[in-house]
Design a protein that fits this description.
Radius of gyration: 20 Å
Structural class: alpha+beta
CATH architecture: Roll
Helix content: 10-25%
Mean pLDDT: 94
Distance between the termini: 22 Å
Number of helices: 6
């Protein structure tokens, strides 16, 4: 159920609160934006994340301002947005986008030990399924230099827009094209590293990369 803080108030008919929809959007997204306040200054930082059941993981350098601040129990806001299309109306005022977004509010906790390794694997697999088994795992020093945070999905909601433009009645007679220009994330041709060992085959995580699609 939505809370007072996560209830969609602007265009409330676009608010979605069921866990399946929220999980699906989080699983398809690649980048989240983390909002927090440090020393009275608001910051919004884009970063990689991953969902694991009823929580999301965020990782970064243990020395980073974001990770150090959030590890201290500062409230945070995480948003994920997927743009599905440009909604082009007959009037400039009614232009919009088709999108799916999630907002998560709460306080993160630091993840340690075996869960930390599993969290890093979850993040890697979220970005490129199968990649964890294809690359070297983190060393002890790399684990020490990385801080992983877990944020529960206790307080979250989604907002979704779909469909064609919504013009004013009198504008439907105007001779201007209107409709939706669909957008999607599509992988290009892989570019091998210049120092790639000769004979190294393209792995399945790269060859078959694609995002789950539900919108």
């Amino acid at each position: 159920m939505p809370t007072a803080r996560t209830t969609v108030r602007r265009l409330p008919d676009r608010g979605v609160y069921d866990r399946e929809t929220i999980a699906t959007i989080l699983d398809e997204g690649l980048v989240c934006h983390v909002g927090f306040v440090a020393d009275g200054q608001p910051f919004v930082i884009p970063t990689i994340y991953a969902r694991d059941g009823e929580r999301i993981y965020v990782h970064g350098s243990a020395a980073s301002r974001m990770q150090r601040t959030l590890a201290g129990g500062v409230p945070m806001c995480v948003t994920v947005t997927i743009v599905d299309g440009l909604v082009l109306a007959r009037s400039v005022f009614n232009h919009s986008m088709n999108y799916r977004s999630v907002v998560v509010l709460g306080t993160a906790t630091v993840v340690e030990g075996e869960e930390k390794v599993r969290a890093l694997e979850t993040i890697a697999e979220h970005v490129a399924p199968g990649r964890w088994r294809e690359a070297r795992g983190p060393s002890a020093n790399e684990l020490k230099a990385t801080l992983v945070l877990a944020l529960p999905l206790d307080e979250c909601s989604a907002k979704v827009r779909t469909g064609p433009p919504e013009d004013e009645d009198e504008d439907y007679a105007l001779p201007h094209w209107a409709g939706v220009l669909p957008l999607s994330l599509v992988a290009g041709s892989p570019i091998p590293d210049a120092r790639l060992k000769a004979g190294t085959a393209l792995p399945p995580s790269v060859r078959g990369w694609r995002r789950p699609r539900s919108g």
